[in-house]
Amino acid sequence: MFSGGLRAAVWKAAAVVGYAVQYGCIAHCTLEYAADFIVCSGPSMEPTIHTQDVLITEKFSVMMKTVNVGDVVIARSPTNPNIFICKRVAGLEGDKVCLNPGSFIKKYRWVPRGHVWLVGDNMGNSSDSRVYGPVPYALLRSKVVFKVWPPGDSGSLRGPPQEMLQVLRTMKDTGR
Amino acid sequence: MQAARRYFKSFASGFVVAVPVTVTFLDYVGYVARVEGASMQPFLNPEDRSFNDVVLLNRWSVRNFKVNRGDVVSLASPRDPEQRIIKRVIGLEGDTVKHTFQMPGTRTYKNRYVRVPSGHCWVEGDNFGHSLDSNFFGPVSVGLVHARASHILWPPQRWQRIEPSLPTDRGPLDQETIDHLEEQGAVTIPKT
């Protein structure tokens, strides 16, 4: 039916498509189950992470449920499933967290089962669990391990800022 | 020896191709799952039998988190990230739904009216009173939705495509009722 040259070309095209599918699938599995890159935007994690910073995140901690208080994580926004948020974990299920650190009369609440409490490092300019409440653990996607860009500021992330320690310290009072 | 090595090599390379392709297919297209429990009776698992219904979970149709009222969806339980639950979507963001809850320690039920917040939906099992659903844990984030149940595959006599449908007595309230309730200040707008 085909001439020899045409048949060879069709086989070659099929092989190229096959390889593309194969490598696409390998890339999907790596990005979904091992590690991926994130470009950040927004002021909520300043001064730890600025807009346009590039982060490497890993998926194992979230899958193995070894995420800890103080880790910076990527999650699906509970109020819009199509966008991702980058926040610091301030409380795990069963922890007591402070709703208004810094104010004189403090309010506390418990983090319900299966949820985490996420707070941005820039506490004055961040919409986080203090606005939309505890976030279901199943919305967490990955944990940030490394900043690769900008080059001068790359490396592992800084710890939480001073005013956030207040949130984290209330947890220690409860015996964690 | 040579043949065994060649055989092992081709087996390993087949493995490297097959596993990622399968995983990607299951992630993007869909997979088959067995329904457990009585929460969706009488629609799924209609009688107590020794075997459960098997449904096709379509992941492609929820890739942008677009769900419709009446869809049967599989989602991660907000109380336990390891657990998948299957429920019917009753209301979407902005809808006002009736929240029926049991008074603690009693057998009496009370109603209140809830506005579903943005990015959330209200899910319920068809089997009222035997289902841990939004009546128990409140509106759930749409990001928890994992797949849409698109077909019942087993048992064969009940093979069917699952069309979105709301139970007659459930669903978002109409505008007239909402206006009436708002005059009384009876609509709750939850924070989560």
Automatic annotation (TrEMBL), chain A:
<comment type="subunit">
    <text>Heterodimer of 2 subunits, IMMPL1 and IMMPL2.</text>
</comment>
<dbReference type="GO" id="GO:0006465">
    <property type="term" value="P:signal peptide processing"/>
</dbReference>
<keyword id="KW-0999">Mitochondrion inner membrane</keyword>
<protein>
    <recommendedName>
        <fullName>Mitochondrial inner membrane protease subunit</fullName>
        <ecNumber>3.4.21.-</ecNumber>
    </recommendedName>
</protein>
<feature type="domain" description="Peptidase S26">
    <location>
        <begin position="22"/>
        <end position="100"/>
    </location>
</feature>
<comment type="similarity">
    <text>Belongs to the peptidase S26 family. IMP1 subfamily.</text>
</comment>
<feature type="active site">
    <location>
        <position position="44"/>
    </location>
</feature>
<feature type="active site">
    <location>
        <position position="87"/>
    </location>
</feature>
<keyword id="KW-0472">Membrane</keyword>
<dbReference type="Pfam" id="PF10502">
    <property type="entry name" value="Peptidase_S26"/>
</dbReference>
<dbReference type="InterPro" id="IPR036286">
    <property type="entry name" value="LexA/Signal_pep-like_sf"/>
</dbReference>
<keyword id="KW-0645">Protease</keyword>
<keyword id="KW-0378">Hydrolase</keyword>
<keyword id="KW-0496">Mitochondrion</keyword>
<dbReference type="GO" id="GO:0004252">
    <property type="term" value="F:serine-type endopeptidase activity"/>
</dbReference>
<dbReference type="GO" id="GO:0006627">
    <property type="term" value="P:protein processing involved in protein targeting to mitochondrion"/>
</dbReference>
<dbReference type="InterPro" id="IPR052064">
    <property type="entry name" value="Mito_IMP1_subunit"/>
</dbReference>
<dbReference type="InterPro" id="IPR019533">
    <property type="entry name" value="Peptidase_S26"/>
</dbReference>
<dbReference type="GO" id="GO:0042720">
    <property type="term" value="C:mitochondrial inner membrane peptidase complex"/>
</dbReference>
<dbReference type="InterPro" id="IPR000223">
    <property type="entry name" value="Pept_S26A_signal_pept_1"/>
</dbReference>
<feature type="domain" description="Peptidase S26">
    <location>
        <begin position="107"/>
        <end position="149"/>
    </location>
</feature>
Automatic annotation (TrEMBL), chain B:
<keyword id="KW-0999">Mitochondrion inner membrane</keyword>
<keyword id="KW-1133">Transmembrane helix</keyword>
<comment type="subunit">
    <text>Heterodimer of 2 subunits, IMMPL1 and IMMPL2.</text>
</comment>
<dbReference type="InterPro" id="IPR037730">
    <property type="entry name" value="IMP2"/>
</dbReference>
<keyword id="KW-0496">Mitochondrion</keyword>
<keyword id="KW-0472">Membrane</keyword>
<protein>
    <recommendedName>
        <fullName>Mitochondrial inner membrane protease subunit</fullName>
        <ecNumber>3.4.21.-</ecNumber>
    </recommendedName>
</protein>
<dbReference type="GO" id="GO:0004175">
    <property type="term" value="F:endopeptidase activity"/>
</dbReference>
<feature type="transmembrane region" description="Helical">
    <location>
        <begin position="12"/>
        <end position="33"/>
    </location>
</feature>
<dbReference type="GO" id="GO:0042720">
    <property type="term" value="C:mitochondrial inner membrane peptidase complex"/>
</dbReference>
<dbReference type="GO" id="GO:0006627">
    <property type="term" value="P:protein processing involved in protein targeting to mitochondrion"/>
</dbReference>
<dbReference type="InterPro" id="IPR019533">
    <property type="entry name" value="Peptidase_S26"/>
</dbReference>
<dbReference type="GO" id="GO:0006465">
    <property type="term" value="P:signal peptide processing"/>
</dbReference>
<feature type="domain" description="Peptidase S26">
    <location>
        <begin position="111"/>
        <end position="154"/>
    </location>
</feature>
<feature type="active site">
    <location>
        <position position="87"/>
    </location>
</feature>
<feature type="domain" description="Peptidase S26">
    <location>
        <begin position="12"/>
        <end position="99"/>
    </location>
</feature>
<keyword id="KW-0812">Transmembrane</keyword>
<keyword id="KW-0645">Protease</keyword>
<dbReference type="Pfam" id="PF10502">
    <property type="entry name" value="Peptidase_S26"/>
</dbReference>
<feature type="active site">
    <location>
        <position position="39"/>
    </location>
</feature>
<comment type="similarity">
    <text>Belongs to the peptidase S26 family. IMP2 subfamily.</text>
</comment>
<dbReference type="InterPro" id="IPR036286">
    <property type="entry name" value="LexA/Signal_pep-like_sf"/>
</dbReference>
